Amino acid sequence: MSMMIGIVGKPNVGKSTFFNAATDAHAEIANYPFTTIDANHGVMYVRKPCPHKDFNVTCTPHNSKCIAGTRYVPIDALDVAGLVPNAFQGRGLGNKFLDELRQAHALIHIVDGSGSTDSEGNPCKEGSYNPLNDIDFLEKEITYWLNGIIKKSWENIARKAQLEGQKIERLLAEHLTGLGIKEGHIQSAIRILQLDGDKPSMWTDEHLLAFSDYVRKKSKPMLIALNKVDIAGDHIKGLIDEIKNRGYRVIPTSAEAELALSNAAEHNLIDYTPGSDSFTIIDRSALTEKQIHALEYIQTHVLDEFGSTGIYRCIEESVSMLDLIVVYPVEDEHHLTDKEKRVLPDAFLIPKGSTAKDLAYKVHTDIGDHFIRAIDARAHRVIGADHELKDGDVISIIADS
Length: 401
Description:
Blueprint (H helix, E strand, L loop, with lengths): L3 E5 L6 H8 L17 E10 L2 H4 L9 E3 L2 E10 L14 H7 L5 E7 L19 H21 L1 H11 L3 H8 L7 H10 L12 H15 L2 E6 L8 H10 L3 E4 L2 H12 L3 E2 L8 E2 L7 H18 L4 H11 L2 E7 L17 E4 L4 H8 L1 H5 L1 E6 L4 E3 L10 E6 L2
Parallel strand pairs: 1-4, 1-5, 5-6, 6-7, 10-14
Antiparallel strand pairs: 2-4, 3-4, 8-9, 10-11, 12-13, 12-14
Helix pairs in contact: 1-10, 4-8, 6-7, 7-8
């Protein structure tokens, strides 16, 4: 199953702008709630040093991109409908939004750092709304949504565990498997919350809510993208500290700036590498005064102030939360090519701890089924099925045809 990152948040905070800036997709953008009704699917990219430099070859990427020695590795993204308070009760597009979250392994929560959108996603005076409220309400919505799913079948699950002597964590894991909740998450919750795993029928509503909250944190790790930082004012640094104190990773972002820069680069108006801290105007005479002023504003108020627009940092931090590594499968370990003679064609994100055989299955089920051995192209040595792969490995897989 491919890893997927969900782009979440209330309406009108820049979710679709973020999604468009981070992907090649084009979601509708407007300054009113519920512009996004159906989930938008796209591909975001994680930056990694391309191994072609280490091998002194010219790469010909297939499933990814290489720009100036940086490989942009794909990961699926989902931009879901905006969430409003009490969505778990079906308010707004709540049920639809939350059901779409099942697919996501991690969440990037877009928060309006300027405080210029109220709890419903309507525009308000800058600084008049506390962005921390959005973090509280999204935690609550997802927790109560999970709690509702658990409680719907709880009596049957608890009775089955006690009457048939089955482990509650196994029964719950089976019930919640479509939500990305694993047996390990459940075991950890029972231990940390000191719940009686032998007598689940004794768990109270408060126990179930605490359990739901714990597995939410473990199964849907969340990063805060503090958006619109260029208009957020001086309070932004204090806000970042407060969010960190709550245990979240937080990245200051300007989705509008990244989208503007990528569009300008696409039209050959500027030289800009996605995610970098600067750009170069190619031909000033091709730009209007308004465009030059806008670009100068982005350089001063976003890139100089925060080091980047933050979009790619958000993607990379999310991949870090999921503990993923990048591996490059090839067919010919000497020339680093596939059947089509493309050099270092593919880059795959896989969980840390994955083995050579796991990679074989990632490439193709048949290759995994007929795995014989693999070759580490960097070390020039044969590795076995259980060999644990490292970030940046280039691996050739030998399978029985």
